[in-house]
Each structure stands twice: as C-alpha cells, then as structure tokens.
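Form 7-S
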Amino acid sequence: MDVLEIGIVGVGGIARGRHIPAFQKLTGEVLIKGVTDVQLERAQAVAKEFDIPNVYKTYEEMLQHVDAVIICTPNKFHAELTIAAFQAGVHVFCEKPMALSVAECEEMVAAAKTAGKVLAIGYHYRSMKQVQAAKAIMESDEIGNPLVIRVQALRRRQVPGWGVFTNRELQGGGSLIDYGCHMLDLALWLVGDAEPTEVMASTYNTLSKTPGQVNQWGEFDPDTFDVDDHVTAYITFSNGASMLLETSWSNNIKEESLENVSISGDKGGLEVFPLTVNYPKHGMLFNSQVAWAPGEEDEGLVQAKNFVDACRGKREFIVKPEEALNVSKVIEAIYASSEAKTSVKI
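Output:
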C-alpha cells in the first residue's frame, strides 16, 4: 500500500492539537511530508517538535511535493488555497467553515469535480461515536419525522483571545461561523433530506464591546471586536420542520459550556449530548440514555482515517462538500437576516 504524503498549510492550534497528532498515528498509511505557514519560524518550530522532515516557504512549493493538503488557515484563504491545490492535482482537507461565502464554496465544489479529487471539510463532531450512534437511531425511524430541532452551542465568557478569531475580515464572523457551525452541521445532517428554506435571525456583540468584561479565554480588544459573540435564529424547512438555534462565546449561563442538538419527532425525541431517546410506550413515557456505543474515542483520528480512505477511493468522506455548502448557505442567510432585520429566503 502506497503511503499518502500530506502537507499542512497553517500550523496554528488546530494543526498542532488535532491534525498532526491524528495523522501521525496512521503509521504506514500517511507521511506528513512538510508544513508551511506565513510565519516561517513557527513552521520551523512545529516541524522540529513533531519530527516533520520539510518546511516549505510557500504553499505553492508544497503542492509540488504532496498528494494531499490539510488547510488550517484563517477562513479568508480556504477557497483560494483549496482551488490552487486542485489545480495542482492534490486532494484537500479544509478546516471548517468551508469558506467565507456560498459563492466561494460553490467554486471549491466545482474545482474538486474538475480535478477529480477529494474535498473534505473538517466538521469533526460527525466523527464522534455518540453522533454516529445518533445518526443510526435517526435512520432507524425510531424518532419518526422531525418536527422541531433545537440547536445550542453556548460558552460562558469564552471568547478566543488568541489567533484571529475576532477579526471579521479574516474569519467572516464570530461565534456562529467558528462554533455554532458545528452543531448546525450536526442538526442538518441528522435530519437528512430536510431542506432549509427561510431564516429569521439576530446577531449581537454587545457583551464583548463593553470594556472591563470578564473573559476566561485570554484577552482581546473590545474596541476592535467586530464579530458576533451571540446569535439566535429561527429556521424553517421545506417539509414543515423548524429549527431554533442559539450560539454564543459569551453567554451568561451557569454552565461553562452547553452544546446539544435536540430533535422532536412524531414518534419520539432524541438528545445528542448525552445521547438519549425519549418516547411513549405502554401508556407511559420513557427516557432511555445510551449506556455504551461502539467506536473510537478520538474523533480526530476517525476523521483522519476517513480522509485517507477517501483519497484512496475506499469510501466517501463523512462530510460531503455539498453538505458543507448547505451549512454555509444557512450561515450566510443568518448573517443576511440579522443585517436586514427581516427574514431571508434560502
């Protein structure tokens, strides 16, 4: 079996904390051949730390020497780098969100089809074993037809005080495009064929622009904070279902964080975190929490293995590009609705 030679573009926290360790566990299947970063010294330090043989000065140079790239840059550069990789005949794993706009996402999908290469998007929550189990439950029809979906991705005063997370030009948004996108992706995936049709939304950044606020995740400048730290949305679907979404970096909740996807169907209900099925039976009401589910605990490793298998043509990547594009359509509509202060059709 040939070894898949991979390059890492951008060596920030997500590359060091998830992707490099995960791919290096796939001994005999993968070689991380090199890294590149706009901060060359940081790339050199990471290469030394993880015993990676090459540091490339540019991504263009890297593309001449690898079979696939992992793109871990700010969101602004996802489309540009992905399309360049496909033009060089290289497979792409791109961190979420797919890109800054639906138009860029569509260009990425078209480039992948033209090149005949894999385009994978890093919505890693799908690779969690409890989420895989939730999908199996949904496909069993135990919940029935989804009616109301509740999505929560909330943190208590945890604005990322590092990197470029609060830079709208580079990231395209804040808590929604960085964090809430994960639970939104899960919800859309779990309900399957339901197509979102209309969005009514509001975005806020009042808390983070107030001087002297408490933040648990480092410091940031409230004067330059120009992204959302709290978002609410009501989303309707073509089959009559509806979704209530709330996401925040800065919520004044009692928990450190609160994340869940809850689906109420016409036969039963499902909560993903913790995985629980709620249903009526024998004239009674039952709540059944899953005590054990099969699968790997490290979702980063599952995601990495899935990408390698997809590049080899063994199976499709768990997040199809068209599905990631659909997530971006909803995100774009949420921001557009908030700006226009009215509902927006998708």
